[in-house]
Amino acid sequence: MIRTLIVDDDALVRLGLCDVLADEPDITVVAQAADGLGAVDQAMSHNIDVVLMDLRMPRMDGIAATARLRAMPNPAQVIALTTFDIDEYVYRAIEAGAAGFLLKDTDPAEIVRAVRVVAGGQPMLHPAAARRLIDHYRRTSRPLSTAARARIDRLTPRETDVLGHLAEGATNAEIAAALGMRESTVKAHISRILTALDAANRVQAALIARDAGLRP
């Protein structure tokens, strides 16, 4: 059973998300919160697998709450919720450790799918969305990061190849096809990459790759 926490300062949004998940046999909403402080309190009181997290809230916003949640032992996966398309709040939420994002008007079936995907340890970003995130960082004027380059140097050549394709938003299946390996092997490489880079998820790994100037 995937135990979820819904966090939004709008009671109607919380109710709508509860309704979306209510009939799923493998998902249960165990708690709700109206702001980031409430989210942290609920996460400390319940064993949460996935958090649907609004970003703009009073007292503590979703970015700060995401960072707090991800710092906990056995942290829940966080899906950032926004009424806007990819914006600065979403970039900051992903840097704080969110596994991805959803627009609040996302189709209900896609919300359910995202909860399952994230609970399984995969990011819920569609590859096109991941590419847009990377494109955003490529357009910034920040110099290449020496620290990011040092992290990349921890990887084997094959892991670096995998990371390069991951940074372009490729799925595991696409990486496997491009590099001539099994998908299970790609998953194993990505697990080692996240550990070596000290990255919370593959989106953070992709941003580290961008900062290091890595290209597939």
Automatic annotation (TrEMBL):
CDD domains: LuxR_C_like, REC_NarL-like. Keywords: DNA-binding, Phosphoprotein, Transcription, Transcription regulation. GO terms for molecular function: DNA binding. It holds the Pfam family GerE. GO terms for biological process: phosphorelay signal transduction system; regulation of DNA-templated transcription. Residues 3-119 form the Response regulatory domain. InterPro entries: CheY-like_superfamily (IPR011006), NreC/VraR/RcsB-like_REC (IPR058245), Sig_transdc_resp-reg_C-effctor (IPR016032), Sig_transdc_resp-reg_receiver (IPR001789), Tscrpt_reg_LuxR_C (IPR000792), WalR-like (IPR039420). SUPFAM superfamilies: C-terminal effector domain of the bipartite response regulators, CheY-like. The modification 4-aspartylphosphate is found at residue 54. Residues 148-213 form the HTH luxR-type domain. This is DNA-binding NarL/FixJ family response regulator. It comes from Actinocrispum wychmicini.
